[in-house]
Design a protein that fits this description.
Helix content is about 30%, strand content about 25%. Helix 5 (about 190-195) packs across helix 10. The longest helix has 25 residues, at about 235-255. The chain has helices spanning about 15-25, 45-50, 60-65, 80-90, 190-195, 220-230, 235-255, 260-275, 280-285, 300-310, 395-415, 440-445, 465-470, 485-500; strands spanning about 5-10, 35, 100, 105-110, 115-125, 130-140, 165, 180-185, 205-210, 215, 295-300, 310-315, 320, 325-330, 335, 340, 355-360, 360, 370, 375, 380-385, 420, 430, 450, 480-485. The chain contains 14 helices and 25 strands. By secondary structure, the chain is α/β, with parallel strands linked by helices. A hairpin with a 4-residue loop joins strand 5 and strand 6 (about 130-140). The strands form seven sheets. Strands 1, 2, 3, 4, 5, 6, 17, 18 and 21 form a nine-stranded mixed sheet that branches. The protein folds into two domains: about 5-145 and about 345-500, 3-Layer(bba) Sandwich (FAD/NAD(P)-binding domain), CATH 3.50.50.60; about 155-340, FAD/NAD(P)-binding domain (3-Layer(bba) Sandwich), CATH 3.50.50.60.
Length: about 500
């Protein structure tokens, strides 16, 4: 069995993993690292999803990397454009040679005696097992199960005689021209698929149990385009990035402090698009407050245009059962369909579903407490890159990946080989790790770690705060415990002596 040792192993070659590799090369240039990617290609989400219209739901000035300017005029970019950007990045910074594809991590075992992670890895191309060891694990594996999306247990689903497709498993050869389509769902995936399929389908119906907040905005930011014309790329990108960061934060704060005002503004925008004669109260007025779930962006109002052109429609109802011809609703109405798309969400899967063992004890993540929303109590030498729910994913991941480098350099400077958050405050109150009502989070909430009600155990979901909390805060804060096991200390002393 092959055994490979590296200083740092990065798990996942999507946006988070590419970011981790860049900062590791920049800030820890002497460290040997590899990226283990379970799939045959890089890109993560942006390579996995192939459904019509796949695009970002955040602007690319903040979803893109801080170190690699986004120069495409479209701030809301499609999947292929994002993939080109990622490939450009790994080639520009010579990261590709560090990526090992088809390497699925099954188990990760930590030994405090040796201050070492040992990973059991399956090579999916050969079906053989390999062993990797490393001093530090950088987890960039995303947040959901790549193998299977979430589909509710619909009554009578086996009776339907047409095709049923989950967006996560989209057949690239699907021909839906002149077909009757029903898309079940009202989130970001549904509002993306509906207007795109409506271009050639006979009709597309978006069937939702309850509405989601939807906002229209241009896919091209004219101010950003102008800035790019008159200023150097890096300066223009920095200005546009900060403009977007501050605007995101401002809108989120308004939504939390003045939810009625934000709700009125969002509903007013839809009235302007569809007209007051449309039943906006039923189909586009959620019962929850803005940003209790993620806001859906509709570039250039494409969803509303397809509704106005009678190419698409919205039905708000509950499913009684599937039938041979379509879906029977609880209201008594039947929706006929040739194809049903179940845009019903994801299955959350933290830390890549890897089985973690620390000093012989299997880790139950739900029994841990999250430290700075990146590390977990009693799990050593591991940092998770997990993005924001209320802003662009990459903003938080970039901070986490820079923190990893700062942590590794601090440990080297002080001769430490182990770091681990210790939660020993008996008065620390615990709460859910994510304060978000989206279905995929609520379904998995009992499996997730907890967070505390005060720092550094508390997640603010605020990039401006986290820049200080993560970027500049003291590492030796009395919570993060540093040590050097006796065996490792002796090995280091021998190594130093042999160099003299």
């Amino acid at each position: 069995m092959q055994n490979t040792h590296l200083d740092v192993l990065i798990i996942g070659a999507g946006i988070s993993g590419i970011s981790a590799a860049y900062y590791l090369q920049k800030d820890c240039p002497t460290k040997r690292y590899a990226i283990l990617e379970g799939r045959p290609t890089l890109g993560g989400t942006w390579d996995l999803f192939k459904y019509p219209g796949i695009r970002s739901d955040s602007d690319m000035y903040t979803l893109g990397f801080a170190f690699k300017p986004w120069t495409n005029p479209k701030a809301i970019a499609d999947g292929p454009a994002i993939m080109r950007y990622l490939h450009e990045t790994v080639d520009e910074f010579d990261i590709r040679k560090h990526i090992q594809f088809n390497k699925m991590v099954i188990n990760a075992t930590w030994s405090s005696e040796e201050a070492l992670w040992t990973l059991e890895v399956q090579d999916k191309s050969t079906q053989k097992s390999q062993t990797y060891t490393c001093n530090f694990l950088s987890m960039c594996s995303g947040y959901y199960n790549y193998e299977k999306g979430y589909t509710p247990d619909f009554k009578g689903i086996e009776a339907f005689q047409g095709k049923i497709i989950h967006p996560q498993k989209w057949p690239e050869d699907l021909n839906y021209d002149n077909q009757k389509i029903v898309v079940i769902g009202s989130g970001a995936t549904a509002v993306t698929i509906v207007p795109e399929m409506a271009k050639t389908a006979a009709h597309v119906t978006m069937l939702q149990r309850s509405p989601t907040y939807v906002a229209s905005g241009p896919d091209v930011d004219k101010l950003a385009v102008f800035t790019n014309k008159i200023l150097p790329n890096k300066l223009a990108y920095s200005i546009n990035r900060w403009r977007k960061i501050l605007m995101q934060r401002f809108m989120f704060n308004i939504a939390r402090k003045y939810p009625k005002t934000m709700k009125k503004m969002l509903i007013g925008g839809i009235e302007k698009e569809l007209g007051k004669e449309f039943d906006i109260k039923t189909h586009f007025t959620p019962k929850y407050n803005p940003w209790d779930q993620r806001l859906c962006l509709v570039p250039n109002g494409d969803l509303f245009e397809s509704i106005k052109n009678n190419k698409a429609s919205v039905v708000t109802d509950h499913i009684e059962s599937f039938t041979a011809k379509g879906i029977q609703l609880k209201s008594g109405k039947e929706l006929e369909a040739d194809i049903i798309i179940t845009a019903t969400g994801l299955n959350l899967k933290l830390l890549g579903g890897i089985n973690f063992v620390v000093d012989g004890k299997t880790v139950d993540l739900s029994k841990t407490v999250s430290y700075r929303a990146m590390m977990f109590s009693d799990i050593p030498n591991l940092v998770l890159a997990f993005g924001y729910t209320n802003a662009s994913w990459t903003l938080k991941c970039d901070l986490s990946n820079q923190y990893v480098c700062r942590l590794i350099n601090y440990m080297d400077k002080n001769g430490y080989s182990k770091c681990m958050p210790i939660q020993n405050d008996p008065n620390l109150e615990l709460e859910d790790w994510l304060d978000f009502s989206s279905g995929y989070i609520r379904r998995a909430i009992d499996t997730l770690p907890k967070q505390g009600t005060k720092k550094p155990w508390k997640l603010d979901q605020n990039y401006l705060v986290d820049r200080k909390l993560i970027g500049n805060a003291a590492l030796n804060d009395g919570v993060l415990e540093f040590s050097t096991p006796e065996k490792v200390g002796k090995q280091k002393a021998v190594a130093v002596g042999s160099k003299q």
